[in-house]
Amino acid sequence: MFEAHFQTFEEPEGGVALTARLSAFREELTRRKLAGFVVPRADQQQNEYVAPSEERLAWLTGFTGSAGLAIVLSQTAAVFVDGRYTLQAAKQVDSKAWEIQPLVDPPPESWLTKHLKPGDRLGFDPWLHTTAAAERLAAACAKAGAELVPVDTNPVDAVWPERPPPPLGPVSVHGTPFAGEAEAEKLTRIRPEIEKLGAEALVLSDSHAVAWTFNIRGADVSHTPLPLSYALVPKDGRPTVFIDHRKLSNSARDHLEQTADVREPEALVSKLTELSRSGASIALDSATAADALSRLITAAGGKPVRGSDPVTLLKAVKNPTEIKGTQTAHRRDAVALARFLAWIDREAPSGALTEIDAVEALETFRRDTGALKDVSFPTIAGTGPNGAIVHYRVTRKTNRRIAPGDLLLIDSGAQYEDGTTDVTRTIAIGEPTAEMRDRFTRVLRGHIAIARAVFPDGTTGAQIDTLARQFLWQAGIDFEHGTGHGVGSYLSVHEGPARISKLGTTPLKRGMILSNEPGYYKTDAFGIRIENLELVVGIDIPGAEKPVNAFETLTLAPIDRRLVDLNMLTGDELSWLNDYHDRVRHAVRAHLDEVTKVWLDAATAPLSL
């Protein structure tokens, strides 16, 4: 009945084959006179999702998380992962061959200084590290009396015989009915920003920035409609887009050529070299530009100007067309979510369903809209103890039956041409415990505090992050992830620069879309997260002395009333929940069959103290 087209549940390979790969890799390093090598989980543009041809870390170590790094030395090797992936790495990586170390505190560089010997040559691929990352590695090497050596070709590729070819996803035009602004208008807004940077030209090293600027989308990586590409935008004159011509139909090429010259990706090196010979200052994005680009510009006599890509902020502030599109996408998504939640409530109490059944059903309900392009990330469906793994991804091996007494945490999203969605609901299967209801209500109160927040212009995500945590802190508990991330417009579901987190230093601007997703995770027991997407809007406050903003909730899906402890809510919080459910019912009800309407009426019925 249900199936997943955009997700798989296979277990990644591991064990003996990977140990043989590590041996072959060490032999290759010896051949190149290198004492070690750094293998990041990265492509040339630091994308969150990378093409199969770029999964070097997974191929070598077995670790498949989205953030990590490996360092191989002749006598020892380590995989570095952040807190989200500690449990996953322990299961995927052979502990006899690899140490598992933290990615952030302490950083890999401190491990390096302990293990490198004076005179060692540590190799790295300058196309896969930013300049800041390369500088940190070089400093660690210097401290140990070793040397950091850039390589021309990646030694992993030399020992990876079945390495997939680079992707050739077809490019589509994302026209003004969806984009809301023509390419020429966007370039007019970008050029003064290049001037401000004191540069002759700007390299768009982030494919999301190229896609947004030139109104194109692609199919080169999973779950994000990304055309892998670069662009060079001069302060004056025509920009150049560097993209494999095999991805371009005649109409896509015609579209690009209206505002830009189109060249093969290899031409970027010669174009930058030529521009640098005149001593030009060229702006690079510190977050995504490969160290190789800085080296190339410097070697040719130019001056790399490292900083934030101005397109990142322009892209984050959605225009009226993008806002209208995302509102439409969320209403469409809401129908699929209501059908799914009603189905779970009917079927799960029998104990017959599994996590994979839930993932397949939700994707099917979304495909039934007729507008689904992809899921926006692999669905997280964790029941019982699996729900406590923040970035859990079900495989056939870990697939757990959804049993009465469990909580089911399901975090999912969709890519529609008019907008990107991301929503998490925690569902009680059978009767929840008093502890579950207490923890859920604390998370809900934090969620409501963010949704109801009113804040002056210039406020950052870090300043409001505490609102989501206050009720958890009162019980001596917390969650170990940010409260919210930015979301793109038919682009990445995780979009910078704004976020609601302790690290969120970018001011929130009207038109930005962010997630609101506090949680609580009890190891080996259950997980709770409630996530809606929020649009930053201006509000009118009589007598206000500066512009004031608030959030408009975009996501429309019932929050499980069975998990709410009414005695813990204030009157204002209860009013917010009832008003929200009223909105959900009005937006969705007319589009449902009779059985689901009955379920929705009950799931959104007002609660009273």
From TrEMBL:
Residues 550-607 form the Peptidase M24 C-terminal domain. Keywords: Aminopeptidase, Hydrolase, Metal-binding, Protease. GO terms for cellular component: cytoplasm. This is Xaa-Pro aminopeptidase. Residues 21-153 form the Creatinase N-terminal domain. Residues 327-536 form the Peptidase M24 domain. Belongs to the peptidase M24B family. GO terms for molecular function: metal ion binding; metalloaminopeptidase activity. The keyword Nucleotidyltransferase does not apply.
